[in-house]
Write a structure and sequence with these properties.
The protein has 275 residues and is of the alpha/beta class. The chain is built from 12 helices and 9 strands. The strands form 2 sheets. The chain has a 6-stranded mixed sheet with strand order 1-2-3-4-6-9, with helices on both faces. The protein has a 3-stranded mixed sheet with strand order 5-7-8. The two termini are 30 Å apart. 34% of the residues are buried.
């Protein structure tokens, strides 16, 4: 696929997917959606990529859905079936949990860590999407808003599931019902992002974190850990421990386990292969 709305770059075992409509604050469109999904699949399939970064070009991450598209939807006179939102899912894959096969939740099923690098304002659909990334960093210039209630809409695209799990039910209802603007510092305090980084060094520090993750952690381990954490959300404690016990036995058989011990004893950087 040729990309017109995103930039896809790889280096140092990293893939960076950049939303690239800076003149529209990277407002989300159907074409951007297709390109992001394709880029994520490309990064996931690339054996040289160990960590994925999702960010925005220019001064913001994503302003949400393209307002011209919303205006068109609000003025249409056809019935609810014709107005229903298009769900861009691939043919059902029985090997992948159903939770990971909806319009944006597929990001949870990407086997590699995804870092959401929130470089500026993020709203509505943009916020819903970035909450499906695994680790989120915000620049000090970032501002967050759910936006939907102020457009006569509801908690779209899984926000009613992701947001309470990150910030608690009370904070989630506050952010969803008021659609007020939240600073990066407040977002960090409530757990929406892991860290706030100065704007001048934002991408430099994000990339340094991602490079360290790619270099020092076994790619097999990060793949299994990501799967464990998301699947455990729907398991009992006993079931989650059972999964961990099974995965530990498998880990002890791997080359990455042998290398993990060897590099520690030999006091050298690891050379993980993911096997």
């Amino acid at each position: 696929m040729t990309y017109e709305n995103v930039i896809y770059e790889t280096s140092d075992h990293l893939a960076t997917v950049t939303l690239n409509r800076p003149e529209r604050l990277n407002a989300w469109t159907g074409e951007m959606e297709k390109e992001v999904r394709d880029a994520m699949a490309k990064a996931d399939a690339d054996p040289n990529v160990r960590v994925i970064i999702l960010t925005g070009a220019g001064r913001g991450f994503c302003a949400g859905a393209e307002m011209n598209n919303l205006a068109d939807m609000s003025s249409r006179k056809d019935g609810p079936e014709e107005r229903s939102l298009r769900v861009t899912t691939k043919p059902y894959d029985p090997r992948v949990p159903a939770d990971y096969q909806t319009q944006y939740s597929y990001l949870l099923g990407v086997t590699k860590p995804i870092i959401g690098a929130i470089n500026g304002p993020v709203a509505g659909m943009g916020l819903a999407i970035v909450l499906f990334t695994d680790i989120r960093f915000a620049s000090e210039n970032a501002v967050f808003t759910t936006a939907f209630a102020r457009r006569g809409l509801i908690a779209e695209h899984g926000l009613s599931w992701t947001l309470p799990r990150l910030v608690g039910h009370s904070n989630a209802l506050d952010l969803l019902m008021t659609a007020r603007k939240v600073t990066a510092k407040e977002a960090e305090k409530m757990g929406l992002v892991s860290r706030v980084i100065p704007q001048d060094t934002f991408m430099q520090e994000v990339r340094a974190y991602a490079k360290e993750l790619a270099a020092l952690s076994s790619p097999r381990s990060t793949r299994i850990i990501k799967k464990q954490v998301y699947e455990a959300l729907n398991l009992t404690l006993a079931e989650a421990i059972g999964v961990a016990n099974t995965e530990m036995i498998e880990s002890l058989k791997t080359d990455d386990f042998k290398e993990g011990v060897a590099h520690f004893l030999e006091k050298r950087p690891p050379e993980f292969t993911g096997t």
